[in-house]
Amino acid sequence: MLLVGLTGNIAGGKTEVSRLFGEHGATIIDSDVLAREVVEPGTPALEAITANWGNSVLAPDGSLDRDALRNTVFQDPDELLELNEIVHPEIEKRRDEAIAEARERGDRVVVCVVPLLFEKHMVDEFDKIALVDAPRPVRFERLLKKRGLEEAEALAMIAAQMPAELKRARADYVIENTGSMPELKKAVASLWAELEREAALTSEEARVS
After folding, report:
1. How far is CA 6 from CA 16, 106, 141, 144, 170, in A?
2. Using CA of residue 39, residue 44, residue 46, residue 49, what is the dihedral sign?
3. Distance between CA 155 and CA 152 in Å, rounded?
4. Distance from C-alpha of 127 to C-alpha of 157, rounded to nearest angstrom
5. For residues 82 and 75, what is the distance between their CA atoms, to the nearest angstrom?
6. I need a labelling partner for 172 at 20 to 30 A (CA). Which of 49, 67, 109, 209 fits?
7. What is the Cα–Cα distance from 157 to 9, expressed in whole angstroms?
8. How far apart are CA 66 and CA 57, in angstroms?
9. pLDDT in tens, the chain (209 residues)
10. What are the domain boundaries of the chain?
11. Residue 131: in which H helix or E strand, if any?
């Protein structure tokens, strides 16, 4: 099994690229999906969040109000770090379980979408690292137009992450997401062919050993 870490800064296009990989046949394990699961009502993570930030970060139905929490923690690096220390261990536990299940099934290519892969020093956990990237001004405009964020909030979210230049230097593959959807599909298809070749080599090496 080839284990691929898919990452990129906010509004770079990770979600779309992971969807395209899934269409090609990859098993997708998305940290954003896991992040929603681990803070559902009744979970230890949500209880810890409300203990730290109070009921003001809860929606009327008792679920997490993500906008309220984001407005609170993204203004303070220390609070963002505190939130990550609550949520990330739970996410990592669920990711490890999903990877183990994929390995047991004999899945050939597993793509883990991990926004903070480099920040969390997780490079060595994957066979290959793929980075989805777009210039900072492009990502800024996407946050304003597609997510409806205010300029200050968008800038704060971009500033909170590691610069893309540092990530590009450490990635095995870089997918440029600056053009049209057909161009993105072509880039993903090309990389998928490469990942399938790598998966075949990995399988052969495992069989021989």
Report:
1. 11, 20, 22, 24, 12
2. negative
3. 5
4. 29
5. 13
6. 209
7. 10
8. 7
9. 999 999 998 889 999 999 999 999 999 999 999 999 999 999 999 999 999 999 999 999 999 999 899 888 877 889 988 998 999 899 999 999 999 999 999 999 999 999 989 988 999 999 999 999 998 888 888 899 888 888 888 888 888 789 989 999 999 999 999 888 999 999 999 999 999 999 999 877 766 65
10. 2-208
11. strand 128-133
Distance CA 173, CA 189 (A): 13
Residue 76 dihedral angles phi and psi, to the nearest 5° = -135, 110
Helices 66-73 and 44-53, axial angle in degrees (round to 10): 50
| Category of 27 on φ-ψ map: left (φ > 0), alpha (ψ -120 to 50) or beta | beta
| C-alpha distances in Å from residue 27, one per residue of 22, 43, 93, 102 | 6, 26, 17, 8
Altogether, the residues listed in the chain come to a count of 209
CA 48 – CA 56 distance, rounded (Å): 14
DSSP conformation class of 58? B
Q: Output the pTM of the full model.
A: 0.85
Domain 2-208 matching CATH 3.40.50.620: the answer reads no
AA letter at 24: H
Closest by CA to 152, choosing from 58, 70, 56, is 70
Residue reference for tokens 């991990």: 114
